[in-house]
Amino acid sequence: MATLPNPLRSPADAGLELPPGTLVTDTIDGTWDEPLLWYRDEPATPGSWSALRALGRPVGLLPVLIDGGARTQWPERWDLGPARTTYPGDHDAEDVLSEAWEAYAADELDLDDSASGWPGPAPTPAETGPDTPDGLAAELADQLIGMGFSPAGMRAGLVPARRSADIPAAIGWSGPLNHENDVARLCAVLRSWEDRFGARVVVLGFDTMVVSVSRPPTTISEAEALAAEHFAFCPDNIQQSTLNSFQAYAEKALLKQESWAFWWD
Which residues pair with 200 in a beta bridge? Predict the structure, then answer.
């Protein structure tokens, strides 16, 4: 894959007038040779995500809200690992999901032997949603900012990435490290979710992610099929949740839901 120039190397040369903020080069392996992301010093306000999308997209930067979380951990303390991250396009989403299912489902789920095999990918929902993927992402960003979603507040950031699904890999995000060592493999799944569900990565924290979904499941059968993918992507969403069955998770967390939240222990 050809590597595009990183506008964050020299924002002025890229025609960017960024407000005061931080260029992040800190990684678990030392200082990276170019900025992995930039985020604003001031807390995000409604409209921040949309404003940065309009500013950054023409030059190859995509917006994301940075969640400081309960411990006020900003990206300099996230143990980013770009040197340990591959390219999402080198992985097949179904292979990633089926391998995780085979590794974890038998031990962690109460399944009959006849139902223990990988059930296959969820279908694309039959009904389209009323919003465009980017339009819904902007609405969700504003909603989360307005409701005080993060204890530490959120900062609006920009990441050099071709598509929203690649944002975690572009920064070498280590949030799912206890589940998956190479986040690019999960980004391959996010790419598939972009295509099938209109997903966009809206928020990243130390080990959390929030995704907007412009084409969510609209039937319980669609939602239950997707629940298997969510388990393979993030087992803790079901195993360490009050919604600890496929049926409950599908009905409450997925059916007609326009946002998905993930947390890796």
Answer: 212
Q: CA 170, CA 24: separation in Å to the nearest integer? A: 12
Q: What pLDDT score was predicted for residue 250? A: 94
DSSP β-bridge partners for residue 61:
160
CA distance 65 to 178: 23
Q: What's the confidence (pLDDT) of residue 112?
A: 62
List, for residues 220-247, the tens digit of each pLDDT value. 999 999 999 999 999 999 988 777 788 8
How far is the C-alpha of 73 from the C-alpha of 71, rounded, in Å?
6
| Amino acid at position 157, single letter | G
Query: Long-range contacts of range 9-12, CB-CB < 8 Å, 24 or more positions apart?
Result: 9/34, 9/35, 11/38
Q: Which of 70, 78, 67 is nearest to 24 (CA)?
A: 78
- This prediction has a pTM of 0.95
State which residues of the chain have pLDDT below 50.
2
How many alpha carbons fall within 13 Å on the CB side of residue 31? 3
Q: How far is residue 144's CA from residue 40's CA, in Å, rounded to a whole number?
A: 17
> What DSSP character marks residue 39?
E
Residue 211 makes CB contacts below 8 A (sequence gap 6+) with 190, 193, 199, 200, 201, 202, 259, 260, 261, 262
